[in-house]
Amino acid sequence: MIKRQSIKKLLDFIDDSPTPWHAVATIEAALIAAQFIRLDETVKWSLQAGGRYYVIRDDSSIILFVLGQKSLADSGFKIVGAHTDSPGLRIRPNGAQVSNGFAQLGVEIYGGPILATFTDRDLSLAGRVSYSDEQGYIAHKRIRFGQSVLRIPNLAIHMNRSVNDEGLKLHKQTELLPLFAQLTEEQLPNPYFMQLLAQATNLDTDQMLSWDLAVYDTQKGTFWGAANEFYANSQIDNLASCHAGLQALLDEQVLNQSQGTLACAFFDHEEVGSESHIGAAGSFLSDCLQRITLALNLDREDSARALAHSFLISADMAHAYHPNFPAAYDVNHKVFVNRGPVIKSNANRRYSSESISIAQFIRWCQDADVPYQHYSHRNDLACGSTIGPLASAKLGIRSIDIGCPMWAMHSIRESAGVYDHEYLIKVLKQFFLSV
Length: 435
Hints:
By secondary structure, the protein is of the alpha/beta class. It has helices spanning 2-15, 20-33, 72-75, 163-166, 189-201, 236-250, 252-257, 284-295, 300-308, 355-368, 387-395, 418-433; strands at residues 37-39, 52-57, 61-66, 77-83, 88-99, 102-110, 123-132, 138-144, 179-182, 208-217, 222-224, 230-233, 261-267, 311-315, 318-319, 342-345, 373-376, 398-403, 405-407, 414-417. The two termini are 32 Å apart.
């Protein structure tokens, strides 16, 4: 029952966070409840030992930290990193168009989604809108259509006889257009779409200047399996890791007993390479760590010492063994749902794990009584990557890439095991409490 309650919180977290902008807002609400103080990057920081703080950059990346009582130069930072974005479809600036009376939205593909999974789903729109406020300043607000307003219907098998033999293949430019309305001859698609946005935001159409809008699945997360041992939702990759890091840092024992300086860094844009001012390859984390050392009056020598003592756990999801496709896995590195977090290794540095960081993580798993697994990708398949190599290289700190095993990564509907999420929270707590 405890595990079911824990995963229910995760499912609610994901359901409340259909886009990176919403994910950061959901995290911020939890931080405010835990009495964290928001810092502004445009003003000078004044920090106190034991203080709880967070910084948001561009609404979709967030860094939260707790200043420890120990000397930062002698103990360093303990950091959990993850990402707030997921692959999918984003609406083009001039997206609305009409074809034979049907209004459609032009989309761009964001990252590497499994496109076929977006068909025949109850889809909707969420994101943020930038607008001119009453004083003429540029402001922005989050937007979310709660009901299904979009759909990408499949072509009937009678017109696509080879679909079951060759798989569903969608032309990325012409066959991914979601339908959203049936218009009369007098109605134009762009004004109609702008009016929908105006109604959802309580803005006038002439106030709205631009937007970041994503397509999301309105179906809620759920348990499945004979014993409810699995769960399914969108964006498990990688909101599950964000949730685990957040829960570990906000744990009462961690907040009350840890003497070190603890942080979680949740970045946008991982799915498209992290090369942005808010991505893991950008300056956000290094800026924040540097400003912490400056606020504590550390000189350059002690700041360098702090980084040398630091450790980053990059938490991202891992590929669970799929019994229908055994040939997709290295025979000696199959990892299974509900058997613990996965240590991800790659000789070509697609993951940041190496023998010392692996040994340290194993020790934390042992101390927390958490099982662990090892994953290595097949040589004849391209290996994905994540934020670990980018962040650790930029900061010069030791790092490991780990994650919970899951099925159907980058599908609009992913699955994972209920036990693994608790295992991950438990070992991250041990990491934060470690001396």
